[in-house]
Amino acid sequence: MASGASSSPPLSVLSLAAVVVLLLAARGGARPPHSLRGVRPLAFDEGYAQIFGSSNLALLRDGRRVHLALDESTGAGFASQDLFLHGFFSAAIKLPADYAAGVVVAFYLSNGDVYEKTHDELDFEFLGNVRGREWRVQTNVYGNGSTHACREERYDLPFDPTDDFHHYSILWTSQRIIFYVDETPIREVVRTAAMGAAFPSKPMSLYATIWDGSTWANASASH
Ligand SMILES: *[C@@H]1O[C@H](CO)[C@@H](O)[C@H](O)[C@H]1NC(C)=O
Ligand SMILES: *[C@@H]1O[C@H](CO)[C@@H](O)[C@H](O)[C@H]1NC(C)=O
């Protein structure tokens, strides 16, 4: 299946450098830090736990880098041990360079485990593509179980996300949500009264996962 093919899994490896979680003090007009310098990334053992994928999750560099692999039987993923209400969440991510049609990599906040029908969620979702074509990234915003206020949005990355690590960040305050690719804000959602609960407002955990979404993501990934 993987072109250029090794017979052994993993087919796809996501390298995720230490996930940085910086909680912003609740202050009006909160901005993301100017740079991530001075922000201490949390090592895996300090703040995260594996949620699936057994040996498809591997820690490197004293837990400051995480490799998530996808093979024929499973993907892999981890979640923060804490729930967060607002903050600046950032991960340096390098996507798998091998054949990746149908692969879905996600870096997201969610409380779907706690609120089954009325969950909140903020996602970066990377939809794997056929070799030679670009990965697509989309952002999603769910509030109280619905995407009513803000649908998914696609963004064309101006670089090859498999070449190197890039920072993907989510700023979430009580008044706005901003998605960043490196230093560039690519989407902003400002809270309005009309949104009501459709603006995410309950504590969420932070997740990173890789999984096979071929039946789910094909239509968008391969055209
Ligand atoms: C969230 O959604 C549920 C189910 O649709 C609804 O009953 C509830 O009133 C909503 N919460 C708010 C704060 O609007
Ligand atoms: C998705 O792609 C896979 C691999 O190319 C293929 O086997 C599968 O049938 C496709 N699924 C759909 C729903 O098109």
Instruction: Report the CATH topology name.
Output: Jelly Rolls
Share of residues in strands: 35-45%
CATH architectural type? Sandwich
Number of helices: 2
State the shape. Answer: globular
Structural class: mainly beta
Number of domains: 1
CATH class: Mainly Beta
Largest sheet: 8 strands, antiparallel
* C-alpha-based Rg, rounded: 17 Å
Mean pLDDT: 81
In this entry the ligands are: 2-acetamido-2-deoxy-beta-D-glucopyranose
Low-confidence stretches: 1-10, 25-29, 217-223
- The total strand number stands at 15
Helix proportion range: under 10%
- What is the succession of H and E elements? EEHEEEEEEEEEEEEEH
Distance between the termini: 19 Å
Signal peptide: 1-30
Protein name: GH16 domain-containing protein
GO molecular function, one term: hydrolase activity, hydrolyzing O-glycosyl compounds
Keywords: Glycosidase, Hydrolase, Signal
Question: In terms of topology, how is this protein built?
Answer:
Blueprint: E1 12-17, E2 20-22, H1 44-47, E3 48-52, E4 57-60, E5 65-70, E6 76-80, E7 87-94, E8 103-110, E9 121-127, E10 136-142, E11 153-155, E12 166-172, E13 176-181, E14 184-190, E15 205-212, H2 214-221
Antiparallel strand pairs: 1-5, 1-7, 2-7, 3-6, 4-5, 6-15, 7-12, 8-9, 8-15, 9-10, 10-11, 12-13, 13-14
Bound molecules: 2-acetamido-2-deoxy-beta-D-glucopyranose (2 copies).
Residues 101-102, 214-215, 218 line the site of one 2-acetamido-2-deoxy-beta-D-glucopyranose (NAG).
Signal peptide: 1-30
Protein name: GH16 domain-containing protein
GO molecular function: hydrolase activity, hydrolyzing O-glycosyl compounds
